[in-house]
Amino acid sequence: MSAEPIMEPVMTQVDPIDLLSAIEEAAPMPIRPEYVEGTVIVPPQPNDNHNHGAGELFYQFRAGGFHLMGFGNAYRAAHEDGRTMALIIPDFYVRRRRPTELDESYRKAHKGWYPIDMIALVGEVTSTNHETDTGPKFRTYAAAGVPVYVLIDRHSKTAHCYTAPVLPGDDPTEAYYDMDTKVSLGEPLPLPAPYPTLDTTPFLTD
Q1: What is the pTM assigned to this prediction?
Q2: What phi and psi, each to the nearest 5 degrees, are found at residue 96?
């Protein structure tokens, strides 16, 4: 896979779910494309430091008693009229619940994508695609009403805890988080209760 993210605007007349399925089938190697703000994104292959740091955060949440912490699931956000707004596979997340029968029915109907309202906290660790995590994904998570967005920005060497999502109108590209708790990598990142304060020192190896 390319070291750089592949980004391609798409025609919205086609359901993005079907479009991503076609791209996956046509790819010569396994990929997990996403769809954000009208653009198909094929994330770059993460390096070992990315995966090591994300794994350390996973264990910090689990050690704090958050057994609904996870990674790997794919989530769909929808416009008010039901159209697909975004298809995202976060680096990590804390769910509100284990999938119910209704959630599994939703996933089946949407070809593998769970409803994004299952997520209470979402997290991303940047690779070479840091602009995606700090821009389109930042706005998309806010537009979807995800209460907490944890961002490890290895490009700027900062860690952020975004809270208080705001959607000022009908346009999801104008959404934002009103609160940003920011620290330098290596410093503890406080999260809102009941979540633990995160140790960000694992990312100092970059």
Answers
A1: 0.91
A2: -75, -25
